[in-house]
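User: Some background: our group keeps a shared notebook of sequences we're curious about, and every so often someone picks one and asks for a predicted structure to add to the entry. Today it's my turn. The entry only has the sequence so far, pasted here. Could you supply the structure so I can complete it?
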Amino acid sequence: MLVIRCTQKLLKKNPGSENFQEDTLVPTLGGWHANLVWLAHSPVVLCVNDNSLLAVLVQGRNFPHFGSAFRDRLTQRLRRLGLFEATISRERAAMEIIQIQPSNSRSVLASMNDFVRHLKFRGSDRFNFADADALGDMLSEMPVGALKYSYPVEVAVAAFSKLA
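Assistant: Of course. Here's the predicted structure to add to the notebook entry:
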């Protein structure tokens, strides 16, 4: 079961129902935090992994289908990390049930705020979602203070390599 902890701003958009089903499968990366941000007047949901601070950007328009859109975007990100298809399939299976909850980590939210500043600095007066992969990759390939200046991509890949 995947837990996505949303900020109040995103919860107001009803990104999915709170699913109280239990599941024994747990994603390798664990839970995520999500926040609705505006980049050049375009709504974007910034999703950040609780453990690795890996960043994934999701379009902020079709909120009832946010969970499946996130799962698809994360799958693409895991492929760009170079993980094996079997590993990605296991991670997707562990994310079949999604539970939406309120945010609970000031540390992750602070890192997300830093990411938003970077996104706004890199952005222009127009935002094209076709650039979302490159922007998410850029955020995940910067050293982060909360990880003692490790890179989120390295922390994420290390989590998967422990399984092998």
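Suggested note for the entry: The chain has one domain: 2-161. The radius of gyration is 15 Å.
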